[in-house]
Amino acid sequence: MTGPGTPEKDFPQPIQPPPLAVANENDYGQISGSAPMFSYSPANFDNRTMQQLPVSTISPSTPLMSVAQHDGRSRFCEHCQRIKPDRAHHCRECDSCTLKMDQSSDVRLTIFNHSIRIGGCVGHGNYKFFFLFVLYTSLYSLWVFGTTLPTIIIAVLQKGNPVDVQWIVCVVLAFLWGFLLLAFSCIHGYYILTNSTTIESISDRPYFIRIDYDRSGHNYQLVSTDIGIKLWSLGMVANWRSVMGNNPFAWFFPIRNVLGNGFTYPFDPHVYQNMVERAAQQSRMSTTQSQLPNDSSIPTSKSPPADSNNFPMNQRNGSASELLV
Ligand SMILES: [Zn+2]
Ligand SMILES: [Zn+2]
């Protein structure tokens, strides 16, 4: 028999982005002179394994797409000194970045001062474990409630058979925990089926999408999305598989079989196509305006600054943008 262990240590930990392999100006130059480190192209992605295929050094046959900052630069964490892949966020509680971060470490559910807490972030590497933990806890609580309540009712109806107050407390707590966690499970089931996260679902800002037409890092357009758009939804089955794995027999067991490495996620094909078309339209508008005589009454299209490919080491992120950009 092994001991129960400490949940905060035994709970599978999320995966962090790799540290930047940069230490001098030459390395900075290599990064600044190429396309974003983490970007998605349908031509270089295997949707079955959710893995990026070996990156070719030649120009991609389809544009590369990634989430960027408002000025076109890669998302960057000043605290960790890491480039943040799409869907990664910095957690102040853990003082580190987490891939596909769902929520911060202080996961607490409190009822009348009774609370459970899951230490560590919930993200790409442990979302399945978190979901199963909440789901099974809710089902167990409901099972306790459903099997205990009839016994108590029968005991109460039988005169001269006093009921231990501990049974009353047990059935009340089982009722509260069961339905609260069941609601929590349903919410996260919805997130899994729509390929979303808690952070993304509460975001009220548009994404800035960078479309790179080659790997030079200089030939790209920056477009913004509508608010509330789900960028990474591939359909319910594919969304479920991406978190729970390809093997149905392992879906409901605590086996780590999440697909992909968490650095690159395939975009919704419709969103991808829409963004590429929007970028092309924006590019045509820029070209048209550059050919017109200088007229201040004509609105200019949004384009990244000339130095937008500089390595973002010197950029300053606001506290708000740090979480959701
Ligand atoms: Zn954390
Ligand atoms: Zn960070």
UniProtKB/TrEMBL annotation:
Gene Ontology molecular function terms on file: protein-cysteine S-palmitoyltransferase activity
Topology in membrane: Multi-pass membrane protein
Primary subcellular site in the record, as a coarse category: membrane
Enzyme Commission code(s) on record: 2.3.1.225
Reactions listed under catalytic activity: L-cysteinyl-[protein] + hexadecanoyl-CoA = S-hexadecanoyl-L-cysteinyl-[protein] + CoA
Top-level taxon in the UniProt lineage: Eukaryota
Residue ranges annotated for the Palmitoyltransferase DHHC domain, each copy included: 73-203
Region Disordered, annotated ranges: 1-27, 279-325
Top EC class for this record: transferase
Chain segments annotated as transmembrane: 129-155, 167-193
UniProt KW keywords: Acyltransferase, Lipoprotein, Membrane, Palmitate, Transferase, Transmembrane, Transmembrane helix
CC annotations in GO: endoplasmic reticulum; Golgi apparatus; membrane
Intracellular or extracellular location(s): Membrane
Gene Ontology biological process terms in this record: protein targeting to membrane
Residue ranges with Polar residues bias: 280-325
Record comment regarding domains: The DHHC domain is required for palmitoyltransferase activity.
Family recorded in the similarity comment: Belongs to the DHHC palmitoyltransferase family. PFA5 subfamily.
Name of this protein: Palmitoyltransferase
